Amino acid sequence: MRRAFRVGITRDFLKADGSIAFGDIGLDLLDAAPGVEREFLAETVRELRPDQVRDYDALLLLGPRLGAASLEGADRLALVSRFGVGYDNVDVPACTRHGVALTITPDGVRRPVAVAAITLLLAAAHKLVVKDKLTREGRWAEKLDHMGMGVKGRTLGLIGLGNIGREIARLAKPFEMRLIASDPYAKAADVAALGVDLVGLDDLLRAADFACVACALTDETRRLIDARRIGLMKPTAYLINVARGPIVDQAALTAALRERRIQGAALDVFEEEPVSPRDPLLGLENVILAPHAICWTDECFRENGLSACRKIAQVATGRVPENVVNREVLESPRFLEKLRRCGLEAGG
Predict the structure, then answer these.
(1) Average pLDDT of the residues in 188-210
(2) SS3 for the chain, per residue?
(3) Domains of the chain, start order
(4) N or C of the chain: less Cβ packing under 10 Å?
């Protein structure tokens, strides 16, 4: 008798009343896949427990951490399909040891995050939040004190020229900005095609009018933008972060903003999330803040969901999924046996 391919979906996709919080996330693709059964986990947790993992063939993962302990006894699990591109909440080596492929959804976030970065750039350049406040408080006479910055001819520095960084560069082109990037892994062909000058990180920070963090959080990039590097920025410059909070030394950035050593910042991510109500960033007027959700649109969630669910459907029929993070697992006997089993069961 054919066994169902069971998919567990972390419960943080749901509102308190049990309805899906993010609208259409592509679950219809799973519902149409033969032999696939899906269910939401019974509770929301910060870190998944082994009993929440071991009975599934695949997990659709949003926010909870999947650590080494989570995978104890997970002999059935073949895939963790991460909804999004960040995977700092997943113990990747542990997945590999257990023969579990980890996938991400770069095709789902590329355009929404790039649009979000441009949104923050323009909002900062035009001092949108300050002007909104002046209008609401009837302080029209003060508008002359808050002149914006035109972007034509200004320099946009991209810290990271990967999937999202390249899309930001494409979207910025019509604004006639000078584009520079720092990325030790960038390929010369990518740089040439985009019209981006590749420079060192220190040189980027010295030159940029808008420095945009768009790289992944790794051991190499943690605190990459530290006090010394923030000190390289022009007093008229803005720092934008749509990647991960710990890439920037938040205390050093707060001090630079408070002391007006840079013009401003626009942050969608923070070292600790949610941000403490006592965080001094919240009291500064020269920073735009968003709750790690500036790219959240119907487009973003639909495209991420379709991408994540497509990978689950691929594994459910014994196919190697796209966008595997731990590609070495594709040579793992444990993973290959799980994939073979799924293929046999899919074929009846």
Answers:
(1) 93
(2) CCCCEEEEECHHHECCCCCECCCCCCHHHHHCCCCEEEEECCCCCCECCHHHCCCCCEEEECCCEECCHHHCCCCCCCEEEECCCCCCCECHHHHHHCCCEEECCHHHHHHHHHHHHHHHHHHHHCCHHHHHHHHHCCCHHHHHHCCCCCCCCCEEEEECCCHHHHHHHHHHHHHCCEEEEECCCCCHHHHHHHCCEECCHHHHHHHCCEEEECCCCCCCCCCCECHHHHCCCCCCCEEEECCCHHHECHHHHHHHHHCCCCCEEEECCCCCCCCCCCCHHHHCCCEEECCCCCCCCHHHHHHHHHHHHHHHHHHHCCCCCCCECCHHHHHCHHHHHHHHHHHHHHCC
(3) 5-104+298-346 (3.40.50.720), 110-289 (3.40.50.720)
(4) N
Q: pLDDT digits over 11-59, tens only?
A: 999 999 999 988 899 999 999 999 999 999 999 999 999 999 999 999 9
Average pLDDT of the chain?
95
Query: Which residues are the active-site residues?
Result: 244, 273, 292
**Lowest mean pLDDT across 188-192, 203-207, 266-270:** 188-192
Q: Evaluate if pTM is beyond 0.85.
A: yes
Residue 348 has a pLDDT of 47
Q: How many CB atoms lie within 10 A of CB 219?
A: 5
pLDDT for the residue numbered 193: 87
CA 145 – CA 167 distance, rounded (Å): 34
The CB density around residue 28, as the number of other CB atoms within 10 Å, is 12
